[in-house]
TrEMBL record:
GO terms for cellular component: membrane. One of its GO terms (molecular function) is serine-type endopeptidase activity. The lineage of its organism: Bacteria, Pseudomonadati, Bacteroidota, Flavobacteriia, Flavobacteriales. Keywords: Hydrolase, Membrane, Protease, Transmembrane, Transmembrane helix. One of its GO terms (biological process) is proteolysis. Residues 54-187 form the Peptidase S54 rhomboid domain. It comes from Cryomorpha ignava. The keyword Transmembrane helix applies. PANTHER family: RHOMBOID PROTEASE, SLR1461 PROTEIN. It comes from the Bacteria. It is found in: Membrane. Residues 224-251 are annotated as: Disordered. InterPro entries: Peptidase_S54_rhomboid_dom (IPR022764), Rhomboid-like_sf (IPR035952), Rhomboid_protease_S54 (IPR050925). This is Rhomboid family intramembrane serine protease. Pfam families: Rhomboid.
Length: 251
């Protein structure tokens, strides 16, 4: 019997720990830049360069402005909470693979400039949650991902090369990593959530089906039978009447 899913403030807080740590690191790095006047952009990911390999690991913690930082922080918290809440056994490895796959693909194919920001991971989480939610029939997760995508500036337009100042390649490869992982992990981790009211309906249905098996036996021409019927128990009653003798036709 599936177990009902329960929610508590403790579980919600636990699901926020890792995304909160990531966002905190993003803010600390940016505040150091802001207070010291330093520019850490050269530590970002520069495709096809040896020094740019470091950027695969540093890229999500570097941001160019307050708006850039805030626009990545909020969806990182929301989507990060969602993946740790709904897919706790897959969350860490999914996050790491999005981080590495998106960064490596960007390093191989991106434009020759410094790429910074956590939006590649954000796109990866959104794509994973959306597709994984539909594949597992967990529509609440898919709807949450879509809501975040539409609220934060129509994120999906960010995978198109419409603004030369935006790393659309980072968005694209992060999103693709999320899609790939949703398919790879589609049969792993939790499937469709089952809630208490669903279990009660299932138990009522089982009791109904068990009751419908109590079909009373009836006699038909002296032979005992037990009809197989679906629904409430039904008692069949037969009556017999002798056939009268044939009569003459009247004109």
């Amino acid at each position: 019997m599936p177990q009902a899913q329960t929610y508590s403030s403790k579980s919600i807080l636990a699901s926020l720990m890792v995304p909160l740590f990531i966002v905190l690191a993003m803010w600390i790095v940016f505040l150091i830049e802001f207070e010291t006047g330093a520019n850490f952009a050269h530590y970002g990911l520069k495709p096809r360069t040896l020094s740019g390999l470091l950027g695969i690991f540093t890229i999500p913690f570097l941001h160019g402005s307050w708006s850039h930082l805030i626009n990545n922080s909020i969806p990182m918290l929301v989507l990060g909470w969602a993946i740790f809440k709904f897919y706790p056994t897959l969350a860490i490895k999914t996050l790491i693979w999005i981080y590495l796959m998106g960064g490596i693909w960007l390093w191989i194919s991106g434009r020759s400039s410094y790429h910074i920001g956590a939006s590649g991971i954000v796109y990866g989480l959104a794509a994973f949650l959306f597709l994984s939610g539909w594949l597992r029939r967990e529509k609440r997760v898919a709807a949450l991902s879509l809501l975040v995508a539409f609220i934060y500036g129509g994120m999906w337009w960010g995978i198109l090369p419409v603004d030369p100042t935006i790393s659309w390649e980072g968005h694209f490869w992060g999103g693709l990593a999320g899609v790939v992982l949703a398919f790879v992990y589609r049969k792993k981790g939790p499937q469709k959530s089952v809630y208490k009211w669903e279990l009660e309906e299932e138990e009522d249905e089982l009791e109904y089906l068990e009751a419908s098996d109590d079909i009373q036996k009836v006699q038909v021409n002296g032979l005992e039978t037990q009809p197989t019927l679906q629904g409430n128990p039904v008692k069949l009653t037969y009556s017999f009447k002798p056939t009268p003798p044939a009569e003459e036709s009247k004109n």
